[in-house]
Amino acid sequence: MVIVLKPHASAQRIEQLIYEIEKKGLTVEKVVGSDYTILGLVGDTSTMDIDSLMINEIVHKAMRIQEPFKRANRLFHPKSTIVKVDGKEIGGGKIAVIAGPCSVETEDQIVEVAQKVKAAGADFLRGGAFKPRTSPYSFQGLGYEGIELLVLAKKATGLPIVSEILSENMVERFARDIDLIQVGARNMQNFMLLKELGKTNKPILLKRGLSATIEEWLMSAEYIMSEGNTQVILCERGIRTFEKFTRNTLDVSAVPAIKRVSHLPIIVDPSHATGMGWMVMPMARAAVAAGTDGIMIEVHNDPEHALSDGNQSITPDEFSELMNSLRIISGAIGRRI
Q1: 160-172 burial, b for 16+ CB within 10 Å, e for fewer?
Q2: For helices 107-120 and 316-332, angle between their N-to-C axes, nearest 10 degrees
């Protein structure tokens, strides 16, 4: 349930109303906007009578949220959320750009790619230290050594780092060294991991599951937010459909859909969605035109010899070309790269 309070309601009357609601066993989260203050009620609101609430002289409007996700709901928090990651923002007027290789391979490789994507305009460096692969015989990543190399690349370039976490026992290390912790598609419904990440103060990048609906995706965000961490960024990375031409089907419509029902920022990963490097540029352009808050691009200095997903990676030169075109598109829709 959401209660919209009248402008200029006194702090004393607001706190009294919150006290009365909390006596019913509900949790109340207060959002203060420029014009209105909104109270978001979480819990079993069946005992709350809207007609009785409307009698209160400071209540402007009261409405029930039909969707099961509460904290992620735009009704709960009408103003779009901007998540800050190591001094940089995701959400708002600027479109964030995350770039880097699928897997961290060597110090020279990750530092070289980091320097080149930064020169082209990237805001963040991505790199997989742990790689959950479909086959157990495929390259699984360098593990914690890969994290150490990412930290070295950050020292060399200043780019905040993004990497994927696999399990609950990694949370402490990732919270210490990684600026934006990525939850991969296969872990989107690993609820124990999500709850542990909800207890941290680190921003979380939550990828959409392989066949997840938008509601299921937002409910996973709700798991993180229910533990107190509201710094959640959603990532559309394609879903599994009957189509076999592409690796997955990039759901560009998820961008405006999420923005309508949720206040959380959303970015798009065209690399994993398509699985083909030659498709990355047109799909990234489409994502920006659709209103994404960011893009995540796999960039490798030698895609032909990459240890993982070289076929969906683009070169630093191609990335620079992509950035130039995205600057034009973003400017046309009143945003910037």
Answers
A1: bbbbbbbeeebbe
A2: 30
Q: Among 3.60.120.10, 3.30.9.10, 3.30.70.1140, 3.20.20.70, what is the CATH number of 2-63?
A: 3.30.70.1140
Residue 8's φ and ψ, nearest 5 degrees, are 70, 20
Q: Are strands 37-42 and 2-5 parallel, antiparallel or unpaired?
A: antiparallel
Model confidence band, residue 90 (pLDDT cutoffs 50, 70, 90):
very high
CATH superfamily of 83-332: Aldolase class I (3.20.20.70)
35: its two tokens: 């014009």
Task: Give the pLDDT mean for 52-81.
Answer: 93
- Radius of gyration of the chain from its Cα atoms, rounded to whole angstroms: 21
- Between CA 319 and CA 179 the distance in angstroms is 23
Q: What is the pLDDT of residues 3-34, one digit of tens each?
A: 999 998 999 999 999 999 999 999 999 998 87
Q: What is the pLDDT of residue 274?
A: 96
Is residue 137's pLDDT more than 90?
no
Two tokens at 31? 């959002």
Share of the chain above pLDDT 90, in %: 88
112 close to 140: Cβ distance less than 8 angstroms: no
Give how far Cα 192 sits from Cα of 52, 111, 188, 189, 296, Å: 39, 34, 11, 9, 26
Task: With beta carbons less than 8 A apart as the criterion, state whether 222 and 71 touch.
Answer: yes
Please tell me the distance from the alpha carbon of residue 155 to that of residue 158, in angstroms, as a whole number: 6
Domain boundaries, the chain: 2-63, 83-332
Rounded Cα distance, 60 and 50, in Å? 11
- Pairing between strand 59-63 and 161-165? unpaired
| Total Cβ atoms within 10 A of residue 88 | 15
In this prediction, residue 46 carries a pLDDT of 83
Q: Where are the beta strands (DSSP E) in 132-281?
A: 161-165, 180-183, 204-207, 232-236, 266-268
Please state the pTM of the whole predicted model.
0.92
Q: What percent of the chain lies above the pLDDT cut of 70?
A: 99
